[in-house]
Amino acid sequence: MSIIVPVYNEAAYIAKVLEQVKRSGYPCQILVVDDGSTDGTDAVLAGIDGITLLRHDKNRGKGAALRTARPHVRGDVVLIQDADLEYDPRDYGNLLQPILEGKADVVYGSRFAGSGPHRVLFFWHMLGNSLLTFFSNMLTNLNLTDMETGYKAFTAEVAQRLVLKENRFGFEPEFTARVARMDLRIYEVGISYAGRKYAQGKKVNWKDGVSALRCIIKYNLLDRI
């Protein structure tokens, strides 16, 4: 398995996240993309063994980090791991099971379909995620519950076929639009979720929601390459 970890200004969390990834029990290649961090994240990463470290000289966004990592992928399965503690690597088993059983090509980890523990936080974020997923489902004809989830796993073959253009969080709706047109077997599994507050470093805001809506329209109706 190749685990891609885009990271931007997560000096307080990244070492703990990578430790949990290594403890997951799965043989994996860990590709960390330091996306122009300015808070000392680079120094923390320099002291961590067992990772392949890639760097951007300035912040370019999550989508750009994934494109940087893709040529280095060596695993049969690719999994995206955010660089904070909102998503728990102990959920890897649930994410990988449909792929390992030969049932799925792409697996979404849903924050809204699981029985695991969920931190109670922002109503408007939940509503925004639900609306974006609803609009995305209307155009893709999928029945996802959490299009915007940070946990997505897919086969290396899917990774090779994907053509992604978005640099930032618009990656999520673009990815969904493109895999929906690729005649793939898409599964969704429940995961736990420990959301952060903005004071703890949460970065997604209402502007990203507007951008996501733009990307839903763009990649489902206009840019279908």
From TrEMBL:
Protein name: Glycosyltransferase family 2 protein
Record-linked InterPro entries: Glyco_trans_2-like, Glycosyltransferase_2, Nucleotide-diphossugar_trans
Glycosyltransferase 2-like domain segment(s): 2-157
Pfam assignment, any one: Glycos_transf_2
UniProt-listed Gene3D superfamilies: Spore Coat Polysaccharide Biosynthesis Protein SpsA, Chain A
